[in-house]
Amino acid sequence: MINRVIVATFLLYFTLPVITWSTDQTVPSGREVAQLVHDRDLGQDSQSQVLMELISAGGQRRLRELTVLAKADGPIRKTIMRFTSPADINGTGFLSIEDGQGGTEQFLFLPALNRTRRIATTQKGRSFVNTDFTYEDMERRPVDDFEYLIAGVANLSGVETWILESRPKPETQSQYGLVRLWIAQDLSVPLKIDYFDDRDQHIKQYRVLQLENIQGIWTETKVIMEDLLSGHSTTLETRDIRYNLGLSDNLFTQQNLENW
Length: 260
Fold this sequence. Notes:
With 260 residues, the chain is mostly beta strands. The protein has two helices and 14 strands; from the N terminus they run βαβββββββββββββα. The two termini are 31 Å apart.
């Protein structure tokens, strides 16, 4: 039986962060915090049902449902998603596999065309199936690709956080010039992320609206990504997730992606 304890339900808008520094506070380096987030426990594998809602600037809403499978293979993570409704996206699949060398291969299967498209590095700044997430947002980036700074601390709805600023190194390809994250100090979970373009213009914001401890793993069960330029937003609500099921490696293949 899943041990589900709701520990924090965040309001739609966080309270304004209050930046404070204590002179006797032990402050980790930015890289240390980034490594903790990168290595946080997500279980050996998981299966979940997710409700996606697309909300236009005018308030029109569209619902989608999908199944998400994820697995850790040593230091490598694999994810496969399958949309199950509505009819116009039913069967569309997405496969993401880290290559162990710092890169991530991504594939999108379109059932109407019976075709799989590999997402090129130059395309990772594009929208993921018309949501406010991009393909870059859908992958875990190597810690060493970025430079980090602890910019302060803040309390978000009663949770103490590190404010971590991340900028890509000159040789790193990224659509973002700056990413500012509020990391829960005791959980290594990003609760809020502000995204800036290469001119430091604030363009998007991600927030965790609900966080739960499920089978001992801290899980973001409701999140929102907002495009601050268009006013469009996307919410993801995880309605059922189970960890450590012993999922087969065969589920995370291009052959399975196209098995629809």
